[in-house]
Amino acid sequence: MSRTGLWGFWWLFAVAVGLLGGCQAQKQEALSFAIASAPSSLHPLFASDAASERITALLYEPLVDFDTAQQPVPGLIRWERISDKHYRIRLNGQPSSFSDGSLPTLVDIEATLAMASGNARSPHAATLSHLTEVVHRGDWLDVHLSRPDPRFPEKLHLGLAPADRLSGGALARQPVGSGAFVFERWDAQNTITLLRKSDGQPVRFEVVPDPTMRALKLMRGEVQLLQNDLPYELYSYLTEQPGVRLQESPGSTFSYLGFNLEDQHTGDRRVRLAIAHAIDREAIVEHLFRGHAQLTNTLLRPEHWAAHRELTSYAHDPNRSLALLAELGYSPENPLKLSYKTSTDPFRLRVAAALQAQLQEVGIELHIESYEWGTFFADIKAGNFQLYSLSWVGIRSPDIFRYIYHSDSLPPKGANRGRYRAPELDLLIDKADQATLAIAATVYHQVQARVHHDLVYVPLWHENNLLLSRNVGVVKPSKEGAYDFLERVSLAHE
After folding, report:
1. What are the two backbone dihedrals, phi and then psi, of residue 5, each rounded to the nearest 5 degrees?
2. pLDDT tens digits, residue range 198-248?
């Protein structure tokens, strides 16, 4: 038979029987999840925003997964380290079929590694740039690297799609994976519908940009799930409504204030230091987040094996800010004028207004520019900003440091959006990449200390994940904010 094979045939047959049975019985009611913005792409190698990453994780199985300690474990593949520059990869048992009925093969894995490492648009290209050759030998692949990397499997958290579909852009809107869900449609209103493989349960992601409207839809029972992205005073109100349940977990979403280091003002560390000391993070967490966030000095959560837990905070010290700005000739009477870019999300605008008020006290006049998400994110990637605020979501591996701080990761090759260049830091990141776990942890501490000193970002907080539900069983959000709970949740009518 063709590549689909007998196994794929019987899978398709079972789906067809299930669909026919569903036509005879009442169509299963969809579980609706309201989200703030549509994903930019459902291609497993080009998802770069939170919505894209979280939905693609439902559609595609990863080559390598992570355990609760953020250590790599076999997913679709298992590996053998022949040397620090040579790995051998095999399929990990009998894989689930793709949604087109075909079975994942080593050819698909080979093509995935080639595209992830060789296409500059992929967010994985920077961390896989040292992958030089993949050789197909029987029932395994030999992967060769240009430099030693004893922790190479950490970099293979990649979703797998059929090799013949990777190019051409179709996967961005018509995904084909082997994950727990099958793509059904993406309509003109940006509503995305998936079908759960285990029982055919439809799950609908409905894009509702306005947070108040998302809350109203939950109250009216038009949607059953919301996660994050609401003004925090709404959570206490919504939990008082009949049938609404709130589940909360500490989150790994890291929020930060970013700078354009090529700008004549924000490129001056004294300006960045004045801003860091002017910001009252505790007040913002208390009054705007209502305590649903934890202050942090680095992007990794404190329990992560590579996290530097002893960095000194930039304390709220307006007098220090005033003195630094005075050296540069600025004061509240003669303010330094800077622009700050953010999205149109009402809560993010409130955070921006708080930052604006705090900076005004020390002699910085902050002009807030808000844009819809696509325009805002495009400007940030293009370096068209002085200051901005964003969040990194779902951080698991310290490979993120290469992606956002290394000189080789300037866009479009990576996410060094502030154009930070520090040869000494590049050497530290290279050293950490080539080190064993125990040594790498120490080197990553040095990396975090350096970027903290240089104020590439002002670290703000880790935001908790808050999941509101109605008419569903008990669900709890993950630390990474992933949507994997949708594999288990079911409707429970009032």
Report:
1. 70, 170
2. 999 999 999 999 999 999 999 999 999 999 988 888 898 999 998 899 999
pLDDT tens column, 68-125: 778 899 999 999 999 989 999 999 998 999 999 999 999 999 999 999 998 878 888 8
In the three-class reduction of DSSP (H, G, I as helix; E, B as strand; rest coil), residue 200 is classed as coil
Q: Considering the domain delimited by 181-249+465-487, tell me its CATH architecture.
A: 3-Layer(aba) Sandwich (3.40)
Neighbouring C-alpha atoms within 13 Å toward the C-beta of 294: 15
Q: What pLDDT does 412 receive?
A: 84
- In 3D space, the residue among 4, 117, 108 whose CA is nearest the CA of residue 60 turns out to be 108
**Strands (DSSP E) along 312-353, which ranges?**
336-343
Residue 84 has which token pair? 């620090």
Q: In what order do the strands lie in the sheet with 131-137?
A: 77-83, 86-91, 140-145, 131-137
pLDDT digits (tens, 9 = 90+) for 281-314: 999 999 999 999 999 999 999 989 899 999 999 9
What is the biggest distance separating any 2 CA atoms in the chain, rounded to whole angstroms?
A: 79
Local structure of residue 159 (DSSP, 8 states): B
- CA 241 and chain centroid, separation: 31
Q: Which class for 173: exposed (0-12), middle (13-18), buried (19 or more C-beta within 10 A)?
A: middle
What CATH number belongs to 39-172? Answer: 3.90.76.10
Computed over every residue of the chain, the mean pLDDT equals 90
CB-based contacts of 161, cutoff 8 Å, min separation 6: 43, 44, 60, 98, 108, 112, 171, 175, 176, 177
- Options 3.40.50.300, 3.10.105.10, 3.40.50.720, 3.40.50.261; CATH for 251-463 is 3.10.105.10
Domain(s) labelled CATH 3.90.76.10 in the chain stretch across: 39-172
Per-residue buried b or exposed e for 429-450, using 16+ beta carbons within 10 Å of the residue's own CB: bbbbbbbeeeebbebbbebbbb
Summarize the confidence of residues 455-475 as an average pLDDT: 92
Please report the pLDDT score of residue 19 as a whole number: 40
Q: Which helix (H) or strand (E) holds 78?
A: strand 77-83
Alpha carbons 197 and 181: distance in angstroms, whole number: 5
Helices (H), 169-317: 211-219, 232-238, 269-278, 281-287
Residue given tokens 């998400």 in the structure block: 373
Give 152's contacts (C-beta < 8 A, 6+ positions apart). Answer: 81, 87, 143, 145
Cα–Cα distance for residue pair 223/345, rounded to 1 Å: 20
Rounded to whole angstroms, the Cα distance separating 304 from 308 reads 9
d(CA 403, CA 138): 34
Q: What is the pTM of this model?
A: 0.79
pLDDT at 375 over 70: yes
pLDDT score for 58: 97
CA 70/CA 396 separation, integer angstroms:
6
